[in-house]
Amino acid sequence: MPRSVNVVAARAKRKKMMKHAKGYFGRRKNVWTVAKNAIEKGWQYAYRDRKVKKREFRSLWIQRINAGVREYGLSYSQFMHKLSEANIEINRKVLADLAMNQPEAFKAIVDKVK
Questions:
Q1: Under 8 Å CB-to-CB from 67, ≥6 apart: which residues?
Q2: Which of 36, 45, 53, 59 has CA 20 to 30 A from 17's CA?
Q3: Residue 98's closest CA among 67, 57, 74, 53?
Q4: Is 75 within 8 Å of 110 (Cβ atoms)?
Q5: Which residues, including other chains, have CB under 8 Å from residue 62's CB and lie 6 or more apart?
Q6: Structural domain that includes position 25
Q7: What are 27-81's pLDDT values in tens digits?
Q8: What is the rounded average pLDDT of the residues 99-112?
Q9: Cβ distance 20 to 39 under 8 Å?
Q10: For the chain, how many structural domains are there in total?
Q11: pLDDT of residue 4
């Protein structure tokens, strides 16, 4: 009895994967084994860097807040401690945005904390 293989499903699977390789350079875009490896590696990087992105943004917000409060004679850690003592619950993302784009509002927060 001849071996039965589901070529339709296999081709559909390969075609779906090759769609992800669109825009890659050289053999990565049209050779199945090379493209598959490139796509899977790309997905690994994407998974890892979704976590790294959160870390990098948090450190950026901290740097911006620190730069903002230095003008008023405070350090970042002192400012955050005084914020928690004053029961002001504003996250770092919002504080960094205020420090960058609305300095008068940020100054009001700093004054309230002091």
A1: 99
A2: 53
A3: 67
A4: no
A5: 76, 92, 96
A6: 8-113
A7: 999 999 999 999 999 999 999 999 999 999 999 999 999 999 999 999 999 999 9
A8: 96
A9: yes
A10: 1
A11: 87
**Does 37 map to a domain?**
yes
Q: What per-residue confidence (pLDDT) applies to 3?
A: 87
| CATH number of the domain enclosing 92 | 1.10.1900.20
pTM of the model: 0.79
**Is residue 97 predicted with pLDDT exceeding 90?**
yes
User: Which contacts qualify for 82-85: CB closer than 8 Å, 24 or more apart?
Assistant: 82/113, 82/114, 83/109, 83/113
Asked, for residue 29, whether it belongs to a domain, the answer is yes
CB 29 within 8 A of CB 20: no
**C-alpha–C-alpha distance, residues 110 and 95, integer Å:** 10
1 part of a folded domain = no
Assess whether pLDDT exceeds 90 at residue 114. no
